[in-house]
Amino acid sequence: MKKMIYGLFFGDSITYGEYDGVFGGWVDILKRYALQQFHEGSNELILFNLGIGGETTEGLLKRMPHELAARNSPEGNIIFIGYGANDLVKKNGNYLVTPEQFRKNIMTAVQHARQYSEDIYLVSILPISQKVDHIETPAGKLRTNDEVLTYNQILKDLAAENALSYIDFYAAFVEDKEILLSADGVHPNEKGYGIMAETAISIVEKYL
Questions:
Q1: Cα separation of 35 and 203, whole Å?
Q2: Interior CA angle at 102 toward 85 and 182, to 5°?
Q3: Which residues in 4-16 are b (16+ Cβ under 10 Å) and which e?
Q4: Residue 178 and residue 84: Cα distance in Å, rounded?
Q5: Distances, alpha carbon 184 to alpha carbons 75, 82, 159, in Å
Q6: Chain-wide mean pLDDT for the chain?
Q7: DSSP assignment, residue 185?
Q8: CA distances for 93 relative to 25, 136, 146, angstroms
C-alpha cells in the first residue's frame, strides 16, 4: 500500500530558500524530487516549507504546536528542525538566544515533534564567509564561525543524546564555503542550495 507521508521543514531563511531565484532553495528542490518520484510509483511524500526569515528558536516555539497540529499525516511525518543562524547573532554584545537557552529551546521543539513523529532531523548551521566573520552588519548584527561551531556542537550532542538524526550541511560547505555562499556571506547561493538538496535527497529517499 502506498503511504502519504508529510515532511515538515521548520527553520529560518535558509530553510525558506532566500536568495535562490533559480530553484527556490533546498526544500523546494526536494519537493519537486518527491513529486517526480511519486509519479513513478513511490509513496506520496508531501513537503511543507515552514521556514521564516530571521526566526530564532524563540519564534519557533510560539508557532510549532499549531503548525504540527494543522499538518499531520496519520500515515507518518518527518520533521526537520533547522535553527541557530539567527540565535547565535550578537546585537549590542548580547546573543539573540544564548547557547544554554538554545539547547533548552531545541529540546522543547523536539518534545513537540515527538508527539507526531519518530523521524526527527536536526539540521546543522552553515559556516559563514570569511568576509562577514566577526564583522558587524549595518543592522548591528555580529556572527562568528566560532559561534557556528558552538551551536552546531549543541545540536550534535542533542542528536546523539536523544537518538535523533543530524544533517551535517556544515561539513558539506566548510571547504568550499566562499563559492557556495551568496554575496551576503550568510545565505547559500544556487550552487550552495544544490549541495544541500543533494545531501538531503539521500534522507528523503528512505521514505519514498
A1: 15
A2: 5
A3: ebbbbbbbbbbbb
A4: 20
A5: 40, 19, 30
A6: 96
A7: S
A8: 31, 11, 15
DSSP bridge partners of 175: none
Place of cell 558539506: 172
Residue 195, Cβ neighbours under 10 Å: how many?
16
Sign of CA dihedral 69, 203, 157, 151: negative
Distance of alpha carbon 126 from alpha carbon 166, whole angstroms? 13
For the record, the C-alpha cell of 99 comes out as 547557547
Element (H, E) at 9: strand 4-11
Strand extents, DSSP E, 58-103: 77-82, 90-91, 94-95
Burial 35-70 (b: 16+ CB within 10 A, else e): eebbeeebbbbebbbbbbeebbbebbeeebeeebee
User: In a 3-state reduction of DSSP, which class is residue 94?
Assistant: strand
- Provide the CA 59 distance to its chain's centre, in angstroms: 14
C-beta atoms surrounding 26 within 10 Å: 28
**Average pLDDT of the segment spanning 19-32:** 91
E-only strand ranges, the chain: 4-11, 44-51, 77-82, 90-91, 94-95, 119-123, 141-142, 165-167
Single-letter amino acid code for the residue at 146: D
pTM of the predicted structure, to 2 decimals: 0.96
3-class state of residue 32 by DSSP: helix
State the residue for C-alpha cell 521543514.
9
Confidence of residue 182 (pLDDT cuts 50, 70, 90): very high
